[in-house]
Amino acid sequence: MNPIASLKIDINLFRNDVNNLINYIPVATNTNGSSVFSYINVNRAFTQGAELNISYKIKTLQISGGYQLLSTGDKDLLEKIKNNEVYGRDKINGVARLMIKSDYSGLLNRSKHQANLRLFWEKDNNKWNASLRFIYRSRFGVTDKDGNGFANMKEEFAKEMLQTNMTIGYQLNKSFSLQAGVNNLLNQINAKDLPNIPGINWFLGIHYSFKK
Amino acid sequence: MDKRNVIFAVLMIVVFASCKKDTTDPKPAEINTKDFLVNGDPSGGNYNFFSFANSAEINEADSSSSKWDFAIRFETFIVNSNASGPGNAGVQIINQPFDAITTAPANSYRYDTTVSQKAIKGADWYTYNPTTRSFSPIAGKTFVFRTATGKYAKLEMISADPTDDLGNLVVPPTRPTKIKYKIRVAYQGDGSLAF
Questions:
Q1: Whose CB among A27, A91, B1, B85 lies 3.0–4.6 Å from B80's, allowing a Cys bridge?
Q2: B18, B16, B50, B23: which is closest to B36 by C-alpha?
Q3: Is residue B177 situated within a structural domain?
Q4: Where do the domains of chain A lie?
Q5: Phi, psi (5° rounding) for residue A78?
């Protein structure tokens, strides 16, 4: 078998200029500490970046990974930074200083780096299968505490997140299959900023399919 | 020997120069960071009054005197002159950080012309996001005051937090009754413009 034949690489570059972008951000806090989300309007925004997807198959193991580098921004705000009109603080109650372009972190709720890696293994004529999956997103801005319209101090960001999921499956016969697994094995939780991701989560399943 | 004399002469010049400077330099302004707890009711009620000379809050009983310089209720500022008091106070907001302002402007101070025409408008110094309900003083804005008695002071709003009556932070759904402002102030008591 030619190893190159089973290697697939996909590269994608993109740039979007959006007028009246609708951004999804946390707006309030529930009594249980989680955030309530709503929408705000960004007058002139851009999103740009690069995506790389790779998949590779060696015998019974399939490896696939993806990475996205993302840069976003509010053009009006960037113009103000360029004109030396925007200040910020490096910590809460710290001294105000002029913000420069490298302080700007882009739109709220967007991570600069996102990546995923999936290992999928099949054996005995697809009777057994197992998968291991990692999903990562780097830190992202959630709030603005110094009135400049973007996240620049540590307290304005949600921390990075790595989810690890594992499953094992067994095909009993043509119709029935069994599955066991765990989502978020490392129990990474951020109830406030990512309420959609629960903690460690075990599951067992039985599937029946009607195919002949 | 010659070299030594030169060094001595240079030293003397430095000593004289610094002596001269000492006698002409105004007394440096005193810088303080304070928590200022104010009435958090946007619809009405009392203001909380502040005096730069005392670097402290002033009793409401003195609200018709020149003992206070500015007062805040919720996010509304009043300054002690014209429509708001008997003093001679005025204010302007400058787009520079606190430390960068070393001299107060000699003029262009604003005052409350009527009860509804205030010297300071909210959007001048904070951002309020109606979606997130977040209220943040804008970093890099400095208030420069002429005080009620004609001295000069500068003020930086560092943070604003919703609190209960005792100044403890509250989060929704608890309604705040007070706003705790962290302020940095410098008061030049000798009447000069230098900070």
A1: B85
A2: B50
A3: yes
A4: 3-15+46-73+105-208
A5: -60, -35
Among B97, B131, B173, beta carbon nearest to A96: B97
If we measure between CA atoms, which residue out of B56, B77, B66, B61 comes closest to residue B160? Answer: B77
Return the sign of the alpha-carbon dihedral for residues B14, B16, B20, B22: positive
* A73-102 pLDDT tens trace: 999 999 999 999 999 999 988 889 999 999
Closest in A28, A38, A147 to B136, CB measured: A147
DSSP class per residue in A50-68:
EEEEEEEEETTEEEEEEEE
Is residue B17 one of the residues assigned to a domain? no
Q: Which residues lie closer than 8 Å to A7 by C-beta, 6 or more apart?
A: A54, A55, A56
Number of domains in chain B: 1
B130 contacts in A (CB within 8 Å)? Answer: none
Separation CA A115–CA A76 (nearest Å): 30
CA distance, residue A83 to nearest chain B CA (Å) = 12
CB contact under 8 A, B140 and A96: yes
Indicate whether B69 belongs to any domain. yes
Contact status, residue B52 vs residue B145, Cβ threshold 8 Å: yes
Does residue B108 lie within any of the structural domains?
Answer: yes
Minimal CA separation from B109 to chain A, in Å: 22
Rounded CA separation B61/B42 (Å) = 21
CA distances from B51 to A21, A65, A141 (A): 46, 63, 38
Q: Distance of CA A32 to CAs A36, A199, B34, B147, B173, Å?
A: 11, 15, 32, 46, 11
pTM above 0.95, yes or no: no
The candidate with the shortest Cα–Cα distance to B153, out of B43, B31, B8, B40, is B31
- Those residues whose C-beta lies under 8 Å from the C-beta of residue A69, and which sit 6 or more positions away, are A49, A50, A51, A112, A113
Distance CA A196, CA A1 (A): 43
Candidates A114, A107, A40, A44; CA nearest to A72 is A107
Q: Position of tokens 């810088």?
A: B31
**Is this prediction's ipTM beyond 0.85?**
no
Nearest neighbour of A147 by CB, restricted to B133, B137, B172: B137
Domain hosting residue B36, numbered range? 29-188
pLDDT score recorded for residue A100: 96
Residue-wise pLDDT tens digits, B149-191? 999 999 999 999 999 999 999 877 788 999 999 999 999 999 9
